[in-house]
Amino acid sequence: MRTISFYSLVALISCLYLVISWVDYRFLCRKMSIFSNRFVRTGYWMLTSVTFCLIVYYWVIEPSANFMYVHGFYLALYIAFNWCFSQLAIILTIPFFYGCQYFMQLFAQPAEQAADNTPEMSRRIFLRKMASITPVFAFGVGTQGVFIGDTEIVVRRHQLTFSGLPAAWNGLKLAQLSDTHIGPFFNLDKLDYVAGMIRREKPDLLAITGDLIDDLDMLDETFARLEQLSLDLRHGIYYCWGNHEHYKNMGKIRERIAKSTVTLIENTHYRLMAGEQPVYIVGVDYPWANNAAERKEKRRQYIAAAHRGIPHGSFTILLAHHPDFIDDGFQRNISLTLTGHTHGGQIGIFEKPAYPLPFAYTRGMYRQKDNYGYVSVGAGHCLPFRLGCPAEIAVFHLGSFT
């Protein structure tokens, strides 16, 4: 159900987008005379208006993936997001442009300019060329992020060693799939492709750490495919809730899981045995809360409930959607905590998010003594743009040492 805060957020983002479009246009007009042409101006604002309406329609109406494909809305929406992110790239380029202009003027040599106007002319030519490539650069960024970034999926492999891993479990291979958001931007063909990637890695089990599906019209087909995948996994598939499951019909998802071979772990644990040596898979719900203190308390409650009955010192793998559970994993001496939720910011620089995220753990592997925590950047997204942060499947090969 849509809330007033949701519509307020849509209105705020819409206003921001229109302001960015206006600033971009004023900059382009000032630096490139062609943008003052009536036909170019009309085309610019028509394209901006159409993309604006398409994106708002998608956010507010949330059309099904089937509707998007049948009516060609899918491609139109991708083009709209391409234009939108191109606009954002332009406004981020403007400070760089004026910074270059300022420093070129600052370090200009007045004596040379008085005697010969060539240095000044060279600067003008450089700035003019720089301005002319701005739209091309911005559109290239948009295309890279929306079309190429949407299709790229990588496998990240991690070799981890533990002193407490039972000998019978030495060599256990675990795959993690997170944040697929199956729906308009992650269809069933893509799920088949990802399932094929997982099969090629030959893991013993698959952990799904939340935000599996956004379009419940695809629920039956999704779990039918997961059931087929589980046949190739010695220890099956384990799944914990994410925040997007709470947005949808959790009862309907729960009913479908109950009919499948996928194991839902909700503030509880599941014991795997190899001979007489157990390994425990723990799963927790998403900690909805009004503030950080309340979220921390919910995490404590969920972890306590999930660990009830697990012998002290047992080798434990924790599945959670929210990355703050990595703290709980370290505090409880949990060997491996797998999380998602952040998408890695979807824009990265040198394997780190390109902008601040409100999480202590944002992307990749973290370690405290003999315990590990991992934040997957996700295999999908609910906004089609990735740059320097490709979607991923994570594979963990666990070994023991004495």
Automatic annotation (TrEMBL):
Cross-referenced SUPFAM superfamilies: Metallo-dependent phosphatases
Residue span, Calcineurin-like phosphoesterase domain: 173-344
Keywords carried by this UniProt record: Hydrolase, Membrane, Transmembrane, Transmembrane helix
Listed Gene3D superfamilies: 3.60.21.10
Entry superkingdom: Bacteria
UniProt cross-references to PROSITE patterns, sorted A to Z: PROKAR_LIPOPROTEIN
EC number in record: 3.1.-.-
Coiled coil start-end: none
Record field: transmembrane: 6-23, 44-61, 73-98, 130-149
Name of the top EC class for this enzyme: hydrolase
Gene Ontology molecular-function annotations: hydrolase activity
A Pfam family assignment: Metallophos
Protein name (record): Putative metallophosphoesterase
Organism expressing this protein natively: Methylomusa anaerophila
